[in-house]
Write a structure and sequence with these properties.
Strand content: 25-35%
Bound molecules: flavin-adenine dinucleotide
Distance between the termini: 60 Å
Shape: globular
Largest sheet: 7 strands, mixed
Structural class: alpha/beta
Radius of gyration: 23 Å
């Protein structure tokens, strides 16, 4: 009998398999499609490859400000597509090599649970002491939008759309909006709620929308997307119905857990439409079966998937778990970037909290980079840092300093004694002023 079977080779599954081998657990990893899962094949990595193209184009647009006169240039979308695909292939090869070197038994096929110790892959029965379900999630599509694209399909598009309508103003929708806007596509976003990226601190969400509008992206908030037919999107809001003409539509209204055909019902594993129910150790209602990453529906981020796998491994090995799942940093790759960790101001309502803010434009390095949009907002309770929200250049990098401090309980007062190199964006933190 194997020590461990993992179903799904996304960042949850393959990272857990590699880690488990370091502790000599005999590990079987089953994948029905491509190693790397959503993140590597049609999520984090391909989008960030396009993001870099977009960033490059944005820099070109202001080259003149830096004394560089560019007479003419064009953007070859096909090259951006090929570059993205090459990066994915390279990284996928890297994961496969690592799994092979580590001695993970990678089996290609669709897995189904048979009993608490057995998984079936194409009629082959595999046994293990522990089973981890890491099957991820898939895009939710909506009725009357048959010809619309999912995020996976948009990433495979070979021609740059002239006009793109995006249904859903969440993280994925806004990242695509920013990228395609920079590529020269006209972008309109339709959102049911009265705000974009609803889980982010409201002030940051409002500021981001203002920046995105300035860059040319059009928003329809409080609007319901009704149908897409013959290159026309029909939406409805308080002003009545509106038709938006376009050549492509992206539906990015959320993702659903991949639970069909896993055999959950037969084993009486508890789940609902959000995902497989797990306890604080990511254990299902069956003692040796766990569910990590997107499939448990608690958090849909790649690093959550990875660290939930590490937590499960510790649990199986009987090692004390020290990973703090209350502090999961998250980044949004828009222009400018947004990054957050901890509580929002809305979540602190009723508590005796303080807000400390610092603007990018007051920072020397930001001025030299001509990246003066945005701010850092630190929320403290009794000087303890409970939330950090950044909108601005390199927010996805800056957030980790604060995340480290928060994980170690360093107060804001103590932080201000830590010398920061000059001139750097990190100094923005030192200048936070109490509101
Ligand atoms: P997945 O990565 O979905 O992997 C699950 C794997 O299980 C798949 O390979 C699937 O084929 C396999 N599988 C499913 N069922 C079976 C079965 N029955 N048998 C065998 N194999 C099976 N997150 C970030 O943190 N940062 C980002 O910048 C980011 N950008 C994103 C951009 C987009 C466009 C999208 C769609 C997502 C993005 N995400 C990002 C989210 C991130 O991709 C997911 O949170 C992450 O991939 C979840 O990892 P996972 O291991 O749980 O599942």
């Amino acid at each position: 009998m194997n020590d461990l079977i993992i179903i799904g080779a996304g960042p949850g599954g393959y990272e857990l398999a590699l880690e488990a081998r370091k502790f000599n657990l005999s590990t079987v990893l089953i994948e029905k499609a491509e190693v790397g899962g959503t993140c590597l094949n049609c999520g984090c990595i391909p989008t960030k490859s396009y993001y870099k193209n977009a960033e490059f184009l944005k820099s070109l647009n202001k080259a003149n400000k830096f004394g560089v006169n560019i007479v003419d240039y064009s953007f070859d979308f096909k090259k951006a597509l090929d570059r993205k695909d090459e990066i994915v292939t390279l990284l996928k090869g890297g994961v496969e090599t690592s799994l092979n070197k580590a001695g993970v038994n990678l089996i290609k096929g669709s897995a189904k649970l048979v009993n608490k110790n057995t998984v079936m892959v194409d009629n082959e029965m595999i046994l293990a002491k522990n089973i981890v379900i890491a099957t991820g999630s898939s895009p939710i599509m909506i009725p009357n939008f048959n010809d619309a694209l999912s995020s996976t399909e948009l990433l495979a598009l070979e021609e740059l759309p002239q006009k793109l309508v995006i249904i859903g103003g969440g993280v994925i929708g806004l990242e695509f909006a920013s990228i395609f806007n920079a590529f020269g596509t006209k972008v309109e976003v339709v959102e049911m709620l009265d705000k974009i990226i609803p889980n982010v601190d409201y002030e940051v969400s409002k500021r981001l929308m203002a920046y995105l509008k300035t860059s040319g992206i059009k928003f329809h908030l409080n609007s319901q997307a009704l149908s897409y037919d013959n290159k026309k999107v029909l939406i409805k809001n308080k002003n009545g119905e509106l038709i938006i003409e376009c050549d492509q539509v992206l539906v990015s209204v959320g993702r659903k857990p991949n639970i069909d055909g896993l055999g959950l019902e037969e084993l009486d594993i508890v789940f609902d439409k959000k995902g497989i129910k797990v306890d604080e150790n990511f254990k299902t209602n069956i003692d040796n079966i766990y569910a990590i990453g997107d499939v448990n529906g608690k958090n849909m981020l790649a690093h959550y998937a990875t660290f939930s796998g590490y937590h499960v491994l510790n649990h199986i090995l009987g090692v004390e778990n020290k990973i703090n799942f209350n502090l999961i940093p998250a980044s949004v790759f828009t222009f400018p970037e947004v990054a957050v960790v901890g509580l929002t101001e809305e979540l602190c309502e009723g508590l005796n909290y303080k807000v400390h803010k610092s603007l990018y434009r007051a920072n020397g390095k930001a001025q030299t980079m001509d990246e003066t949009d945005g701010y850092v907002k630190i929320i403290t309770i009794d000087d303890s840092i409970v939330g950090v929200h950044i909108i601005g250049e390199s927010a996805s990098v800056l957030i980790h300093e604060m995340s480290s401090l928060m994980n170690n309980g360093i107060t804001l007062k103590a932080f201000k004694n830590i010398i920061h190199a000059h001139p750097t964006l990190s100094e923005i933190y030192l200048n936070t002023i109490e509101n």
